[in-house]
Amino acid sequence: MATQSLFTANSLHTEPSSSPHTKVEKKWLGFIALDRKPMHLRLSNGCRARASLNADSKSIEIPRQWYNLIADLPVKPPPPLHPKTFEPIKPEDLSPLFPDELIKQEASNERFIDIPDEVRDVYKLWRPSPLIRAKRLEKLLDTPARIYYKYEGVSPAGSHKPNSAVPQVWYNAQEGIKRVVTETGAGQWGSALAFACTLFDVECEVWQVRASFDQKPYRRLMMQTWGAKVYPSPSTLTEAGRKILQMDPSSPGSLGIAISEAVEIAAMNGDTKYCLGSVLNHVLLHQTVIGEECLKQMEAIGEVPDVIIGCTGGGSNFAGLSFPFIREKLKGKMNPVIRAVEPAACPSLTKGVYAYDYGDTAGLTPLMKMHTLGHDFIPDPIHAGGLRYHGMSPLISHVYELGYMEAISIPQIECFQGAIKFARTEGLIPAPEPTHAIAATIREAQKCRETGEAKVILTAMCGHGHFDLPAYENYLRGNLVDLSFEEEKIQASLASVPKVGG
Ligand SMILES: Cc1ncc(COP(=O)(O)O)c(C=O)c1O
User: Region Disordered: start and end of each range (predicted)?
Assistant: First the structure.
């Protein structure tokens, strides 16, 4: 349950002095519609954004630093605990899984962390990613709202995931690691890691949730094309997998099970480390390139968001976009509502408990204080595979408890209805995960139509759905169903949450 907001800067909302309807010559440059007078916000990321009518999304610089929100929080998040002793973990407890530099980032209180030049060089393949105004969607919705989306589908893997895969593999390679292992659901994270591994000559092995491995061959083929080995999870290669298969030989798998398998392999092999695509502080940190760029892009066109919306699985794309804006909010520079959107079938923030729980099914990971549906919870097979995770990032959970953001859940049919509207106006076919953000954006824009408010809505379009077309086929044939959340199911899985004080 979110506590009362500690945030006191509500009265400091920075609005352009001109009316939102001020008529300024409209220009389309690159991906950005310039229809507002430029204004200057002094951003506290140390970067001076050039506000110029000639700015387009390519003229801003790729950030030189990631942003760590923890540095600016008045209350620090609770520490992760050792899974056996329940004592706060020490850096050395994590060294079988992660390289030293990532362990340092995980526990860092530094406000900004330099992005290595080699990582920035790879980012240049697709960054800065475009910020696009959804003018045609606005028109369809007949809304006075101005809708912008930050599009991460331009990366080689088609989502935001390479923003963290690239530095994770780079730090591992720097410390001499030759093999990394991971889990993946629909394959977005696995393909991002396989892509990064091929650049830095590191072997990659991926445990892919069985249901996706069987139903969605294309991302598996991407991973294999980039040289990764891919196994269906649960597998017979690990003790965790064998145990699950003994109980249920046809188990469809889950992200929690696949994490157990990958963690087990890393823990048992000295030359192998584990990479995670979301949830942990260092992953959220790397994703802040999205928000840092977006702050500059919005400043360049003279816009300040009133509402920021993103989908949440483990929370990395949402944090990536919103955390730099939360920094500006804490400094009183702006005051956007920050809204996470989760699937109605896996609502960890809105229906979970805030408690210490394991990040995986077998209980091998540290205990993290987070919103959780219970580590035993196996979400229904909704199409947004990347949102089928029982927990929420501890840092997002903490920020939610502090009252700096809100959360809602939306069932999948409404999400696909929104995605079709989006595809037929903006042209891009969203991955099933960001359809949640799009549906919430449409709700907000429709509210603006009723109230007449010209709000600026900024949304995270974190990936394309070119390899998720069976989901669209299901929807277009009228076969999609809303998999409702069953209270009894969660009560049963919440019973597995360990009893830890705090
Ligand atoms: C395209 C896409 N969006 C969102 C997510 C959810 O992850 P996160 O909440 O960490 O952004 C995933 C996860 O696989 C994904 O592939």
Answer: 1-21
User: In DSSP terms, which residues pair with 113 in a beta bridge?
Assistant: 66
Strand ranges in 165-312 using DSSP code E only, listed in sequence order? 179-184, 203-209, 229-233, 272-274, 307-311
Domain count within the chain? 1
Mutate to test the pocket of ligand 1, among 163, 182, 311 (most ligand atoms within 8 A of CB): 311
Whole-number Å distance, alpha carbon 387 to ligand 1 midpoint, is 6
Distance of alpha carbon 462 from alpha carbon 434, whole angstroms: 6
Owning domain of residue 33: 26-69+111-158+285-476
Which H or E run contains 456?
A: strand 456-461
CA dist 423 and 33 (Å) reads 19
Instruction: Indicate the top mutation candidate among 129, 149, 155, 160 to test ligand 1's pocket, ranked by most ligand atoms within 8 A of CB.
Output: 160
The atom of ligand 1 lying closest to the CA of 283 is 10
Q: How far apart are CA 48 and CA 67, in angstroms?
A: 15
Whether 247 is covered by a domain: the verdict is no
Name which residue sits closest to atom 15 of ligand 1, judged by CA: 386
Measured by CA distance, the residue closest to atom 3 of ligand 1 is 433
Q: For residue 153, tell me if it sits in a domain.
A: yes
How does pLDDT run across 99-154, given as a tens digit for each residue? Answer: 999 999 999 999 999 999 999 999 999 999 999 999 999 999 999 999 999 999 99
Is residue 386 assigned to a domain?
A: yes
The reported pTM is 0.89
